[in-house]
Amino acid sequence: MSEILSLKNVSFRYGNKTVLDNISLSVKKGEKVVILGINGSGKSTLLKIINGILFPKKGEFFYKNEKITEKKLKNRDFAKKFRKEVVLLFQNPDSMIFNPTVYDEIAFSLKQFGFENIEERVSFWSEKLGISHLLNRSPFELSGGEKQKVCLASLLSLQPELLLLDEPTANLDPRSTGWLIDFLQDLDITIITTTHNLGLAPELGERTVVLSENHEIIYDGNLTDFIKNKELLEKANLIHKHRHLHAHIYHSHFHFHDEY
Ligand code: ADP
Description:
By secondary structure, this protein is of the alpha/beta class. The protein has one domain (3-256): 3-Layer(aba) Sandwich (Rossmann fold). It is built from eleven helices and ten strands. The protein has helices at residues 43-50, 70-74, 76-85, 102-112, 118-128, 144-156, 174-186, 201-204, 223-227, 230-236, 241-249; strands at residues 3-14, 17-28, 32-36, 58-63, 66-67, 86-89, 162-165, 190-195, 207-211, 217-221. The strands form two sheets. A six-stranded mixed sheet has the order 6-7-8-3-9-10, with helices on both faces. Strands 2-1-4-5 form a four-stranded antiparallel sheet, with helices on one face. Adenosine-5'-diphosphate (ADP) binds at residues 14, 19, 37, 39-45.
């Protein structure tokens, strides 16, 4: 598999507060990677860097072996091509919707990017996401889960190569969470998903990258091995002490049912 993304020694600060510390990460085409870390560990910031919204002051970022620079992203044509291929679903879908109907919402980005056969494309993706019955509704009136599906339809209709999902299960009930997990598993593109939920991480991807409280990558691999490592679990600060024990007793299974 060829490499789609590579971060080399990337650090990021807001003011003088470091929120990503010397991050190196490479992702192969077709991989489903989960970024796991507590709130504030830097997950959203990392996705925004990969989406080219934020630019790291230190380190390098390559997309399909091409170095992505702030200068390139300031070029309209380059940014347009890049943002069509690398798309980000924000944690709060309200920040992404602004059209009067669901149809317009999905059609909007298709028009922006010059796609043809817009009606067919909207129809295909709304059907795939189970929102065809909502096409004439205002997206603002929908539930959080429905809004999220509208945003996903509008991003996926662009046929991106890399889908970035910021805590996509954080505001979903268990049924919608299960639906989303199945849906993502069937998608044939590279996906990077963030979550703070240890129990959900293995469902969202086969490879888990753990960000510590100190904003460093402390683990990259199979989650089963991660939860066997007491020291790393403590560094990640992902579970309470009594749940910690639980993780060791049942180390080959995932018994974290909260929020799922
Ligand atoms: P996560 O997604 O893991 O919760 P974030 O990347 O959102 O982490 O945030 C990492 C840290 O950066 C947090 O302490 C957060 O308060 C801070 N932060 C996030 N966005 C900004 C911003 N625009 N300005 C200043 N600090 C920020």
